[in-house]
Design brief:
Layout (H helix, E strand, L loop, with lengths): L5 E5 L10 E6 L2 E7 L25 E4 L8 H9 L7 E4 L6 H16 L4 E3 L13 H8 L3 E4 L4 H8 L7 H12 L2 E5 L1 H4 L5 E4 L2 H7 L1 E2 L7 E4 L9 E4 L7 H9 L6 E5 L3 E6 L2 E6 L3 E5 L12 E9 L4 E3 L5 E2 L15
Parallel strand pairs: 3-17, 4-8, 5-6, 5-7, 7-8, 10-11, 12-13
Antiparallel strand pairs: 1-2, 2-3, 4-14, 9-11, 13-16, 14-15, 15-18, 16-17, 18-19
Length: 339
């Protein structure tokens, strides 16, 4: 980004499991960064594992940062494990510009892990939005044990499920099943729609220069109505692969409704059961805690934002913001970090 730079200062510490604590200034913003390094099998986290407890709360959310690979069975299994009842997972290809192909691909991948018939398609697209009001569509949705929203453009999902004229019967049916315990999952665009408002466009440079925007023809990070399955944090996707940290931070700081922001990287999911979330997959999740954020009096920028970079098996309490690192990870000596 032209005209800006950053510096990093690392304070060596004794070896520990979560990597290193870093203080750095980025474009005038002071941030505390806690890094969780290493692997670890999903589910091998801290004591007090409450997997399965989502049955007493609204359903599980499996929020995937995009780029989900067919061989990432841990994420697909997390979706299947969140099912409520004996019905299939309903796949919505609404976001994709090639909905038929997208739907068939998702069904095939879910079936490969859960067995034939584990998923079916519900063909709702921007070309047939009226079908979201059909009794047959609602009946199908009511029979499903969970839902999967494919990637593409999140705006398409909202225009069909929550148009300006009011929430569609299809959206109401999905919401009711979620409240009853059905899993709701989605990748890329299907992850963004979990929040309300959601991020719908813009990059980090635009966000820093222009802040939040609500109209398409303006600069900044674009926000619009989402499906609202998750109150807090705000969700963003492709976070590390596409360098979207600062658009996330701008969006969170600009909206009182959010105190946390979560950037989920590709081929990785944040699995939410009640107020507990766990990282599953191949890469990382950036968690932004802005509760102590403040504007300094001596110049531009923000101080007091804490960022955790979480890896597989790490856990997050979405109420308190507390992070529990996976104790099965190898130790990392920060003093060995190359200068």
């Amino acid at each position: 980004m032209t005209g800006h730079g950053f510096g990093t200062a690392v304070e060596p510490k004794a070896p520990h499991r979560f990597g290193r604590a870093v203080r750095f200034g980025l474009m005038g913003m002071g941030v505390a960064l806690l890094v969780s390094c290493g692997g670890g099998a999903p589910g091998s986290g801290a004591e007090g594992d409450d997997s399965g407890s989502h049955r007493d709360t609204p359903g599980r959310l499996v929020i995937i940062g995009g780029g989900l690979q067919a061989e990432n069975t841990a994420v697909y299994q997390a979706i299947l494990d969140g099912r409520d009842g004996d019905g299939p997972i309903c796949v919505f290809p609404t976001a994709n510009h090639e909905p038929q192909e997208s739907m068939e691909s998702a069904i095939s991948r879910i079936d490969a892990v859960g067995g034939p018939g584990s998923a079916i398609g519900v063909y709702l697209t921007v070309d047939n939005p009226e079908d979201a009001a059909l009794p047959a569509t609602v009946e199908t949705i009511r029979s499903c044990s969970g839902f999967y929203f494919s990637g593409g453009r999140q705006r398409r999902i909202v225009s069909v499920f929550r148009p300006d004229s009011g929430d569609s019967p299809a959206y109401q049916a999905v919401w009711e099943r979620y409240q009853e315990g059905a899993v709701v999952s989605g990748s890329s665009a299907g992850a963004a729609i979990m929040s309300d408002p959601m991020i719908n466009g813009g990059d980090s440079e635009e966000a820093l220069h222009a802040g939040i925007r609500w109209e398409d023809d303006a600069e900044g990070v674009l926000l619009m109505r989402g499906l609202g399955f998750l109150d807090n944090p705000l969700i963003d996707q492709h976070s590390l692969a596409r360098g979207r940290w600062l658009r996330m931070l701008t969006a969170v700081l600009g909206r009182d409704v959010y105190s946390f922001g979560t950037g989920i990287d590709e081929n990785t999911a944040l699995v939410v059961d009640g107020h507990s979330a766990q990282v599953v997959g191949a890469a990382g999740v950036a968690f932004f805690d802005t509760r102590n954020a403040a504007v300094p009096s001596d110049g531009p920028g923000i101080r007091g934002v804490t960022v955790f970079l979480l890896g597989p098996g790490d856990r997050l309490d979405l109420q308190s913001g507390a992070v529990t690192f996976n104790q099965g990870k190898p130790l990392v000596d920060p003093s060995a970090t190359p200068s």
